[in-house]
Write a structure and sequence with these properties.
alpha/beta; 9 helices; Uracil-DNA Glycosylase, subunit E; 6-stranded mixed beta sheet; binds uracil
Length: 213
């Protein structure tokens, strides 16, 4: 569908979703939020980053990854020659869970089905980078452990799903930094790989994005 959408049409379609999110009361997270955080970046980004949920600063500003983990994410992007404007960054859920608690399965399910899946459909990224375990769990089997599978690309749907640690986890445990940087350094090669094989139809079966629970 969005293969035929122009950049402006994609921008408009994403803005339409953002407006729906601003009015959303589909789960309990709406009642404690200051601002919704739909996501930001290029409407036709080749790389889509999916974090967990907005934190305090994101909730204040309405933008994803603007706190300490966002600063680190910006550094990682700069390390591979990218800026936020080259990619799209969003989260599994678009409203801050009170006190930064984990989002609940029903909140995740509602938000992914109503918004994230449509954002993916419009952006059509070549690589989906999952930041942390909540986002990883959307595209990888429940048995997958981030400490084991980070940096291991999964090829399906003509794209690559690429799990990496959450930047906040790396900031809490600096021992993870070399692995995180190595995983980021590989990203542009993976992008070239998808571009080279974009007509390849021998993919794994599609992931169960739509029926998580
Ligand atoms: N952590 C996340 O997962 N997302 C944000 O937007 C900020 C911090």
């Amino acid at each position: 569908m969005s293969d035929t959408l122009s950049l402006e049409e994609r921008r408009a379609a994403l803005e339409q979703i953002a407006q729906e999110i601003r009015a959303c009361q589909a789960c309990p997270l709406h009642s404690a939020r200051t601002r919704v955080v739909p996501g930001a970046g290029r409407p036709d980004a080749e790389i889509l980053f999916i974090g967990e949920a907005p934190g305090y600063h994101e909730d204040q500003q309405g933008l994803p990854f603007v706190g300490a983990s966002g600063k680190y994410l910006g550094e990682l992007l700069a390390m591979i020659g990218l800026t936020r404007n080259d990619v799209f960054i969003t989260n599994v859920v678009k409203c801050r869970p009170p006190g930064n608690r984990d989002p609940l399965p029903t909140e995740i399910d509602t938000c992914v089905k109503t918004y994230l899946n449509r954002q993916i459909e419009i952006i059509r990224p070549k690589i989906i980078v999952t930041l942390g375990r909540f986002s990883m769990a959307l595209f990888f089997p429940p048995t997958a452990r981030i400490t084991k599978v980070h940096g291991q690309p999964r090829r399906a749907d003509g794209r690559i799903y690429y799990p990496v640690f959450h930047p906040a986890a790396v900031l809490r445990n600096m021992n993870l930094r070399p692995a995180m940087e190595a995983d980021f350094r590989r990203m542009l090669d993976l992008l070239k790989e998808v571009e080279a094989t974009s007509n390849n139809t021998h993919d794994e079966p599609p992931p169960k994005q739509l029926s998580l629970f």
